[in-house]
Amino acid sequence: MSRLTKMALMASVLACSVAGAAADTIKIGINQPLTGSVAASGNFITDGAKLAAEAINEKGGVLGKQLELVIEDNKSNPSEAAAAAEKLISRDEVSAMMGAWGSSFTLAVMPKLQEYGIPMVVETASSSKVTSAGNPWVFRIAPTSEMEAKAFGQLVPEFAMKKVDFLVVNNDWGLGAAGEFGKMLKEQGVEVGMTETMDPAAQDVSAQLAKIKASDADTLFVTTGYEQLSLVFKQLKALDVNRRVITTGGSQFPDRLAEQLGSAADNSYHILFFAPWFPDAAANPEVAHGYIDQWNQKGYDKSGLSDGFRGYDAITAIAAAVEAAGSADPEAIRDALWKVDVKGVNGNIKFQKVGVEGSESGQSSPNVYVVEIKDGKLALP
Amino acid sequence: MDQLLQHLLNALILGSTYALLGIGLTFIFGIMRVVNFAHGEFYTFGAYMVYLFSVTLGVNFLLAIVIAIVLGILLGAVVEWLLLSKHRGADIDTTMLIMIGAWIIMQNAEQLLWSGVAKSIPMPFPEDPLTVGSVSVAWARLFVFVMATLLIIGAQMLIQRTRLGKAMRATFQDTATASLMGININMIYLATFALGSGLAAAAGALLGPIFIVIPTMGNLAVIKAFAIVILGGLGNMKGAALGGFVLALVEEFGAGYVSSGYRDAMGFLLIILVLMVKPTGLFARTERIG
Amino acid sequence: MSNISKWVIVLLLATVPLWVTNQYQLHILIMMGIFTIGAMSLNLLLGYTGQLSLGHVAFFGIGAYTTSLVSLGFDLKLTEDYTFVFAPKPAWFGVICAIVVAGLCGWFVGKLSFRVRGAYFVIVTISFAEVIRLVALNWVDLTEGPMALNNIPSLAFTIPWADSAALSRRIANYYLVLAVAVISSIIIQRLVQSRIGRTMVALRENEALAKSVGVDVTRSLVLAAVVSAAIAGAAGALYAHYVRIVDPDVFLFIYTVTMVIMVIAGGKGTLAGPLVGGVIFGILPELMRGHMLPEVQWIAYGAIMILIVFFLPEGIVPAVQRWWAGFQRSRQSKMNPHSRANKASPREAAQ
User: Fold this and answer.
1) Is residue A23 part of a domain?
2) Distance from C-alpha of A307 to C-alpha of C68, rounded to nearest angstrom
3) pLDDT of residue C338
4) Per the CB < 8 Å rule, is B109 touching C295?
């Protein structure tokens, strides 16, 4: 997102809040990484959330009130995510939140939800810890690493892998993915080699790649955000490591990788939760088309479509819950989230009870797609 | 063995840019006695200028690098004139605090102008790497290595062979006498800071396209530059060049054979060790530049 | 400032939770208090001994991590078949450990780094903080690395008149921070006014001279470093139990810079300086919020820092004191033209 649109956004949020004071809005907090190591994705998700709010507001809002998004930057850092939640809850008094991108950030926010009794729809985080902690204020629309691994498992025989290595970002997300995919692959009889980690902000991973180059695995699984992923591909090419690369996590922007990296990204597969290049393959094609049209109308960066939908779906789910609750009371919204059954861009959003009995968290069952980069173009494998 | 060679090669290339960064910093410290905390921001500035000219404005990539270096020199001169020229002879803490202020201002200005989302700069080099035996190197990295080496040699020549360099060396040895000999000390300081900043901008302009460009990229760069300078001995140019390579070697081998997570810690441990054992730096004779 | 007026201020501060009931405003005050304590401890090194320690956040972070680990418990796999299990201990015990561990680290760093001076000293202290940050980031078994230590228990006691648990916790934390701030300033004041404190100042003014009259330089410096680190550790412990999450970014250089700005702006080497600086820079961001983007705020900080070095090199407190002393003198000289002889220099007045 350009600085200009960001300023326009802030101006519009400001305008909204001024108007909101009079019109009595329903405030929803957005806790996303707008700067730092995974900022690209966080900005797109925020854009998607704004589109959903706009679409809902144009149709008259919820309960006759307009939705107002209050946006806080969590700077791609867990403590900042907790601080942002603190601000959204105690200063802005939001009714519900969407956040906080990464698993580490989300886990950092969760005690605040319990302390103040505010529900949060989790749009990206994939660690199993999020929904197994016994926090009844958490509702996740993103798949867990386990669900992702399981969905991908059906494709494993086609790839005929013998041995795989992992290169993952050194946090709940990366380590969780390496663990779950490793487990799934072992069950399928694939040998699991080394797991190399990288700091979320690391730029030079050639030392790790030199190690991986020396391994005899045929496939490399990589889990990280787009920024680091593009570096991994560049450096893989630079070190002449030729093997199949499979990326997980859903924030890879494969179209941008294909465009910017050329042949460096060839022969790679990307596990995604929405493939905007093939909207008809989506579970709800009409919702997908609507979202894509709205995105393009705004002139947003097309490569953000595959991430922006998370924000779109999260706000759609929250709005549905507010509607069902009949009030903006956080606890009523929490109870109503259990009744939500709406069509999202990814698929139908409906929460099942998971985790600690008596204080279950919500988890929907999103769809998983795999996209291949072949000769610089995207294809469904 | 193959892995060893690959690590060595990686270290050599990285070391050349580290050296560039370190020379600029040690140069400023040696002559002006200023610990330049904004050094990493000149590095970031160089990278963003390449982004601005080559990606946003569509200027030729090589030309964009040259423009970035020239603008880095100019910005350095402006900063020196604006912030440091009034503080000649002030103690080291005063100028250090001013430069910390400059660092904060520059970094946030970059964030304001280009947002916190990382940018990447395409390079016009063949994608397939140069492979010799089992060792590979990207053409882009080779280009960085050659450019950095040329710049290091250029800076060295400037100090050793030109009138300006001679005046700088004289100022370094004895400011008062140099001033009596008719050397315009203010001009020397301005040139020194501009040149040091230009070298940092050059390092950023070269490394930015290899990695990604982000407003906070200077934070680690400045601390690494300090490490390099300490290794070589404050104010020692050849020491800084060597220090750059030593740091890159230690990091690369640390990451390759000890733990990739502690990659960046290696440098700092090295500094603490060096300072405990030989506080004047690994390669220090007595302090001098050139 | 007389002792009575100091206690009046403390009493006034103690009444704050009675009339500030907005949770968010209390939150701002607590965070401001914690960083002010950090700034006070930095001032001991920066202001009184004249050593520009730029790794100060390391002690703050060590305090935060120590108390978190002690109160959460941890297990460490030392060998294949032996795992060291540390059971969770009460939070107050964690705070004591934090103070002790931070103090020990201060002693260690002091011993190492006071062998060098000037730019070298600065760089050793920065390097130390950076190494600690990288250890916290990578020793995942102990620190959870980038995933952060979460759900740190609260240090709070129940406040009877608060009408919600959240508010009670905030008020309790406010009083804790106030208490630690008062105790710290008493310790710093005592230390500075003691013989050792005078040695430190002698050192700052002229190290060679101090040495020649037999001052044990390293000993006084190390003592200052230990006390300073222990107080910073206490501030870090309060921080950890208040925000209840700690990650390696707590060691970032920018936090040291925040404390340095507070000390320099307020007036280094004065007792009131860090307090004034802490209040200004703790509240300023909130006042500016909504009027300018966060980046613009930071740019303003940087500019303020430079302007202070340019125009108020001693900081706000000494400048105000001088102005006040001048004002008093001119008033006195009007009444009694012969009293000029007993004017006090601002620095003495400040101490």
Assistant:
1) yes
2) 35
3) 56
4) yes
State the helix-helix crossing angle for C57-72 and C217-243, rounded to 10 degrees: 50
pLDDT at C344 over 70: no
Residue C87 counted as domain residue: yes
Judge whether C128 lies within some domain: yes
Report the alpha-carbon distance of residue A136 to residue A119 in Å, rounded: 8
For chain A, give percent helix, strand, coil, nearest 5. Answer: 50, 20, 30
Q: What is the pLDDT of residue B18?
A: 92
Identify all chain C residues contacting B230, using CB atoms and an 8 Å cutoff: 120, 123
Q: Say whether B212 and A202 touch across the interface (CB within 8 A).
A: no
Q: Is residue B36 part of a domain?
A: yes
Residue B104 and residue C301: Cβ atoms within 8 Å? yes
pLDDT given at position C291:
74
Q: Which of A149, A187, A181 is nearest to A168 (CA)?
A: A181
- Record: contact A211-B116, CB cut-off 8 A: no
CA distance C306 to chain B (A): 5
* Overall number of domains in chain C: 1
Q: What is the DSSP string of B227-249?
A: HHHHHH-TT-HHHHHHHHHHHHH
- The answer, yes or no, to whether residue A349 has pLDDT greater than 90, is yes
Chain A residue at shortest CA distance from B5: A210
Give the residue among C181, C236, C187 at the shortest CA–CA distance from C70.
C236
- What is d(CA A320, CA A322) in angstroms, rounded to the nearest whole number? 6
Residues of C in contact with A87 (CB under 8 A): 24
- What's the pLDDT band for B66 if we cut at 50, 70, 90? very high
Which residue did the predictor score with more confidence, A75 or A341?
A341
Tokens of A121: 């729809």
Q: Is there a domain that residue A181 lies in?
A: yes
* Domain co-membership, A221 together with A317: no
> Helix, strand, or coil here: A197?
strand
Cα distances (angstroms) measured from residue B86 to each of B79, B96, B98, B190, C301: 11, 14, 11, 12, 21
Tally of domains in chain A: 2
**B91 lies within 8 A of chain A by CB:** no
Same domain, A131 and A19: yes
Q: What does residue B283 show for φ and ψ, rounded to 5 degrees?
A: -110, 15
- Domain of residue A106 covers 3-143+283-363
Range of the domain at B173: 2-217
Domain count, chain B: 1
Residue A22 to residue A215: CA distance in whole angstroms? 64
- A360: closest CA among A368, A352, A372? A352
ipTM of the complex: 0.84
Query: What's the rounded Cα separation, in Å, for the pair A260 and A300?
Result: 18
In this complex, the residue of B101, B219, B265 whose CB is nearest that of residue C253 is B219
Residues 6+ apart with CB under 8 A from A52: A311, A312, A313, A314, A315, A316, A319
